[in-house]
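Lab notebook, design round three. We kept the backbone fixed and only want residue identities now. Task for the bench partner: fill in a sequence for the structure below.
Input structure tokens:
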């Protein structure tokens, strides 16, 4: 398992309100990214949450179609007598015995970044007197330049400081986006005047900062590091890697078991003093019983972990077999409907990789689907590269549409048949999408504006279609990237 992003924060000011607010923030993130009505077995979600459990934990595993691995997101909240500790990690978990390219760092996607920002606002933790947040602090005069130098030398500082001098620059390298992605990982400061720059350097007696580079002041007396790049890529990569390296190994106790009811018969008190030998024997018996129960819990936890790992491996194997079946399906489709030249082209993995090419092929080969002009236009604009999977789903939808025309499927049962026959099919869209973004899903069909609510999720691509109940025609309305709805980042 490889950790590709890590963030942690701890607060000594512990309250029940802070704990509950953190739990609510994580669960909101989970519902936004993986809405309950769209969850499936291909994305395992494990939640550990109990009022009498000091540990709250959410673990989400998403299959990575690009390689034999899964991407995990784990949020852990631990309550102790001294502090409230929050830990967030993104991991790459191999699910097959294969050597994979080591992608060390992942920038947090926007919705995960929002969660990090929200957590820092709940905790309100200070680092050497400075609040940990997502803001860029500006040093624009001599006093603020000296204050920044003093902050860089603060012995109790835990996080690094990124300092960029913006004077005489047409544009800055670090931005508000950089600051948000480094929330809880580093402080970002901009020096905007010569006076502030000179005041900072005079504190050290040498030019540590300049408009020619970006300087990172590491904590605990480590030497400052300069970055001369024209973007923030290497800078952010280094800082996230440092954050990952500082994450502790989490040793989680098993969840508490429900307390057993007390026996109905009242306990009898001994009539006289207990002999020391009998007391020692009883204590030893109780200790042995606790050891036995603890061992059972450890074995149970290990078994659950092994089952989860095996399930993840099987899920990844099924995903790989599904991708191979897609290629076989498309080859069969073309060999039965097209000439030998096209069949030979299928040997090239790049052939029909583009969604736009796959939609063009589907339009010419699938007789039971009507392709709206917007579907053709959107497939060209999307520039997606999972065309064979899109073609396979369109082929399956075409067969269902044929059964619909022949009367094998009743019109009111068509969407149910799609749910049974098509993986990752959704019969409608969210209420937010209907109310706030109706134009994204609407097409002009026979002089009327209709909404294409049923859709198929094909990786990054979406296929939206409209079922004309009057004529039983299936109209492909849109093929492209995810349209706007409540989970849009």
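Proposed sequence:
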């Amino acid at each position: 398992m490889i950790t590709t992003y890590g963030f942690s924060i701890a607060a000594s000011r512990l309250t029940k309100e802070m704990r509950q607010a953190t739990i609510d923030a994580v669960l909101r993130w989970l519902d936004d990214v993986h809405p309950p009505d769209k969850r499936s077995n291909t994305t395992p979600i494990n939640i550990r949450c109990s009022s009498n459990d000091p540990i709250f934990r959410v673990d989400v595993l998403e299959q990575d179609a690009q390689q034999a691995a899964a991407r995990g997101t784990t949020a852990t909240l631990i309550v102790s007598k001294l502090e409230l500790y929050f830990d967030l990690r993104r991991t790459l978990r191999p699910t097959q015995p294969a050597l994979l390219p080591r992608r060390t760092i992942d920038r947090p996607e926007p919705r995960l970044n929002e969660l990090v920002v929200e957590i820092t606002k709940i905790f309100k933790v200070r680092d050497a007197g400075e609040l940990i947040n997502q803001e860029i602090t500006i040093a624009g005069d001599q006093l603020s330049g000296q204050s920044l130098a003093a902050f860089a030398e603060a012995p109790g500082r835990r996080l690094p400081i990124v300092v960029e001098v913006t004077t005489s620059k047409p544009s800055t390298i670090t931005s508000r986006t950089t600051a948000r992605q480094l929330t809880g990982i580093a402080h970002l400061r901009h020096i905007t005047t010569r006076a502030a720059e000179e005041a900072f350097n005079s504190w050290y007696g040498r030019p540590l900062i300049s408009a020619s580079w970006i300087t990172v002041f590491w904590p605990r007396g480590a030497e400052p590091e300069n970055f001369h790049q024209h973007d923030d890529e290497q800078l952010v990569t280094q800082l996230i890697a440092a954050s990952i390296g500082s994450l502790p190994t989490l040793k989680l106790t098993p969840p508490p078991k429900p307390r057993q009811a007390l026996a109905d018969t009242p306990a009898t008190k001994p009539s006289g003093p207990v002999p020391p030998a009998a007391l020692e024997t009883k204590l030893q018996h109780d200790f042995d019983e606790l050891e036995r129960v603890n061992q059972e819990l450890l074995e149970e936890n290990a078994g659950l972990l092994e089952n989860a790992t095996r399930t993840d491996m099987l899920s990844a194997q099924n995903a790989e077999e599904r991708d191979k079946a897609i290629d076989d399906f498309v080859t069969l489709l073309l060999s039965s409907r097209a000439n030998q030249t096209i069949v030979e082209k299928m040997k090239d993995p790049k052939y029909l990789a583009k969604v736009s090419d796959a939609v063009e092929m589907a339009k010419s080969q699938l007789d039971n689907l009507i392709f709206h002009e917007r579907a053709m236009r959107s497939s060209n604009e999307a520039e997606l590269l999972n065309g064979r999977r899109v073609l396979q789903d369109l082929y399956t939808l075409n067969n269902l549409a044929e059964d619909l025309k022949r009367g094998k499927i009743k019109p009111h049962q068509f969407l149910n048949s799609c749910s049974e026959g098509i993986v990752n099919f959704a019969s409608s869209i969210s209420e937010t999408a209907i109310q706030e973004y109706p134009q994204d899903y609407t097409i002009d069909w026979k002089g009327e504006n209709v909404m294409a609510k049923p859709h198929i999720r094909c990786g990054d691509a979406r296929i939206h279609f409209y079922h004309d109940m009057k004529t039983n025609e299936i109209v492909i309305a849109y093929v492209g990237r995810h349209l706007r709805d409540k989970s849009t980042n």
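Keep this in mind before ordering anything: The chain has three domains: 2-123, 126-245, 340-481.
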